[in-house]
Predict the structure.
Amino acid sequence: MSEARAATEKLRGELQSLGVTTAYEVGDDAILSVWIGLVVRFRDGFYRWQEGAVKRRHLGTDPVGCAIRVARRYAELQADVPAWWDELAKELRGDSAGDYP
């Protein structure tokens, strides 16, 4: 198992323990999609997460701390869905996505 895959699995487990159950691996197993527009990658010893144009990073040795930060942002997005979400959802998922994040 690669370092990136192991780190991604640890983060996913931590997110699930915090109630974020929608996260899933994308592509090369080093990318975790938490919610549409909120993605976490593991590279060069860091978790790098972004939401749209906003980019953050967190030490790869601290999946718990990263999960807390990402889960907090996920909850904020769920509570106050950004205006750009509808357009992005339609573009990525098509009109059938409706209100489902």
Notes: The first strand starts at residue 24 and ends at 26. Residues 3-95 form one domain.
